[in-house]
Amino acid sequence: MAFSNQYSSIPPDLITRVCRECPVTDPPRLPGPVSVILIVTNHCNLRCVMCEYWKYPPGKGELSFEQLIDAVDQFNELGVRRIVLTGGEPLVRKDTLDLCDHIVEKGIDLLLLTNATLIDASRAARIASQRAMRTIISWDGWDVESFDTICGSPGTYDRVKRAFDLLCIENGSGDRVGVNNHRNTGQHLCARADNPADRWVRDRSVALASSLFQVGPVHV
Known about the structure:
The structure is a single chain. By secondary structure, the chain is an alpha/beta fold. It has a single domain (34-212), classed as Aldolase class I (TIM Barrel, Alpha-Beta Barrel). The protein has 9 helices and 6 strands; from the N terminus they run H-E-H-E-H-E-H-E-H-H-E-H-H-E-H. The chain has helices at residues 12-21, 65-78, 96-105, 121-129, 144-151, 156-171, 183-191, 196-203, 208-212, and strands spanning 35-39, 82-86, 109-114, 133-138, 177-180, 205-206. The protein has a 6-stranded parallel beta sheet. It is globular, with a radius of gyration of 25 Å. The N and C termini lie far apart (79 Å).
């Protein structure tokens, strides 16, 4: 063992004994994350004015189903207790609900963020069958005209409202269904407190997008 001049008076065997008797241990491992946001696709079937996900072609840069399953298994080993499944629009993938089943089977709480336009009666029943799964639906307007204009697709309001109804019927209540809206929509909903439908949506709103995005007025 070689030493620089300043340590030349220290017997090499002394350093060896100190290192052996006072081993340096690896630093303790930090605990894994409690929650994970898992983006399963960059594609979306709507053309919302505040978003550009719809510009991404389906399938480009996405993890395969097998890779997603492996990722969930690794999250489970790390002690993750909640997964937020989002996109793009996660339900444009035909295997998304299969992935949801796997997540719930692992004992992980699941939050599905969706625009709900692809939820039909069959999908609503399957979503509702997973008691550890909650659904948050984007509510991007304060009436039919504004909703369809913001989302860039006629008939969006009707499809989303129908999905709400289906999920509430399948769940037996709206307890596991919420809505997510941006600031501009929330202000209009609060101003229309006399409308029962608007109160229903407002009371189920979550502040996720309101705190993350500052969206200016949309003229319709």
